[in-house]
Amino acid sequence: MLLLCIISTIHTLDAIGTLIRLLDMGIEPYLVSSSVTGIIAQRLIRKICTDCQGRNKECQHCLGNGFRGRMGIYEVLRVEEELHPYILNRCSADMMRGYVKSGGFTPLYSVLQQKVAAGVAESDEFQRYVWYADKTTVV
Ligand SMILES: [Zn+2]
How confident is the model at residue 138, as a pLDDT? Predict the structure, then answer.
């Protein structure tokens, strides 16, 4: 048995967006569902300065901008058999997101919410990096 692992990058807003992009590129749905096993979407977000918590305009560590460094946030989508009908029927991204969320999938939006709640990132990052999110349907 030959196992073939291909790792590639594609620019989309989220993991589900990758499936939609592949379909939009003309790849047959049966090929997408049978060959894609997992997708990791990532964003780099700015970290709030740990020395001044973003509150000191004269902070020497962040030069007064309130941020110091970046960190990755990720969402991991396992493309399991239960998701295949959504791909084969070319369902909308919102339908796919709704389905995977019911199975325990944690979207980027929720990961960012956790980082904001923990005081690591500011809520401005929602506008900067997770712009697809419709809070009423995704989260
Ligand atoms: Zn600072």
Answer: 37
Residue 8 has a pLDDT of 83
Q: How far is the CA of 112 from the centre of ligand 1 (A)?
A: 21
Distance 58 CA to ligand 1 centre (A): 8
Residue 83 DSSP code: G
SS (H, E, C) 32-81: HHHHCCEEEEEEEEEEECCCCCCCCCCCCCCCCCCEEEEEEEEEEEECCH
| Residue 93, phi then psi, degrees to nearest 5 | -60, -40
| C-alpha atoms less than 13 angstroms from C-alpha of 65 in its C-beta half-sphere | 7
| 135 pLDDT tier (thresholds 50, 70, 90) | very low
Q: Compute, in angstroms, the gap from residue 47 CA to the centroid of ligand 1.
A: 10
CA of 119 from ligand 1 middle (Å) equals 14
**Ligand 1 centre distance from Cα of residue 121 (Å):** 13
- Residue that has been written with the tokens 């239960």 in this structure: 82
